[in-house]
Structures are given as structure tokens and as C-alpha cells.
Amino acid sequence: MRVHVADHPLINHKLTYLRDKRTDSPTFRRLAEELVTLLAYEATRDVRVEPFDIETPVGPTTGIKLARPKPLIVPILRAGLGMLEGMTRLLPSAEVGFLGMVRDEETLQVSTYANRLPETLTGRQCYVIDPMLATGKSLGIAIDYLLDLGANDITAVCLIAAPEGIAYLEERMAPHGVPIQLVVGAIDECLNDQGYIVPGLGDAGDRLYGVV
Ligand code: URA
Asked: What are the residue boundaries of the structural domains of the chain, listed by start?
């Protein structure tokens, strides 16, 4: 698994305000969106393109355009929804699939309650978005769904990751032999006993949408 930490002063500035517990939900949502757009720039560095002939007002030239099939963006609900707008802003022609997952706060086990993905993903570049890579279980399950549908080019985009989650994913993905790319804004210190990233930002879903 290739791990890329998008270390940039603007990303760190926005992450600092995102982490701050005084930041209210509307500001949190705006910052998350802005951050994703910056991370998406890194995550799409290898997006597939094809030549495209055009005429400028001065003469003909060959540029590029995004290749078919269209990329697929998969937010992991609910917190991944907070990253969708920022991602589609950069990839407006992408299609969007959905995976809904919930974590049992006692056992930290993850279960899937919604799965809306294309029938096949052969040849498609997939971008999974989830703000917090904590234990790595949700992302591991999500990537397994994509692999089962034939995906062989998967990038996960997360705002913050824990070293434990990255190690877990690396081990879980190794047998598949499919190159997986992980783009994150920061790698934090560790997970606490409740499975929260330290220092992290708390519960991303709650901070985006309130405690429901
Ligand atoms: N999910 C969150 O929203 N925050 C964490 O710190 C870990 C998992």
C-alpha cells in the first residue's frame, strides 16, 4: 500500500481549525470540504486520461481529457458524506457509489447497513472517502467490496489516520496483490481505548452533522 501524507501548510492550517473543539458544525463542514479538494488534487495525480483534439482560437492542438470508464467515488456513510462535495468538485464527471457502515462503540466491530455500488468495477478507478482511518476496519471492508467487484485501482482519501489503522490495512491488503493508494492529511499519534484517534478531532460524523 502506498501511503502519501499531503504535507502542506494550507492543509495543516485547515486541519488545525478542524481539530479545534470550538469549531462549530457549519465551519467544520466547510473546512472538511476545502481539505478534501486539496487532498483530491494529490489523490488524482494518476487519474487516467486520453488524448483529446481541440481547436483553440489560434489553431489545433491535442490536449487530454479524463478517460472512460468514469472514475467512481465511494463515500463511507455517514462521515464520508462530508467529503463528497469537495471530491466531486474536482472530479465532476465521476459517478458516486455508497457504502453505509456503523461501528459498535463497545466492540469496535463494523457492520454494513447500505451498499449501492455498480455491478462491476473492472477497469474503473475508485476513490473511497472516509475522514478518519482509525482501526482501519471500515476501510478494509469497503476495499474488499470493491475488489470483489473487480476493481484493481483503488485510492482511499482520509483526513486523519492512526498508525494502527494503516498497519492493519497494510496487512489486510497484502494478500490481494492489488496496488492500493492511501492519501491522508495527517498521521496522528495513536488510537485510544475507545478507538478514537489521538489527538484527532473527535467523532467526525457528530461534528459534521450533530449527535443523532
Ligand atoms: N471515527 C471518528 O469519527 N473519529 C475517530 O477518532 C475515530 C473514528
From this structure: 2-54+61-209
pLDDT digit string (tens) for the chain, length 212 residues: 999 999 999 999 999 999 999 999 999 999 999 999 999 999 999 999 999 999 999 999 999 999 999 999 999 999 999 999 999 999 999 999 999 999 888 887 889 999 999 999 999 999 999 999 999 999 999 999 999 999 999 999 999 999 999 999 999 998 888 889 999 999 999 999 999 999 999 999 999 998 77
In angstroms, the CA 83 to CA 109 distance is: 23
Give me ligand 1 centre to Cα 196, in Å.
5
Let me know: does 131 contact 80? Beta carbons within 8 Å.
Answer: yes
What is the CA 25 to chain-centroid distance, rounded?
20
- Write out the CATH class of domain 2-54+61-209: alpha beta
Residues in contact with ligand 1 by the CB-under-6-Å rule are 79, 132, 134, 195-197, 200, 203-205
**Which residue puts its alpha carbon closest to atom 4 of ligand 1?**
203
Count other C-beta atoms under 10 Å from residue 114's C-beta. Answer: 12
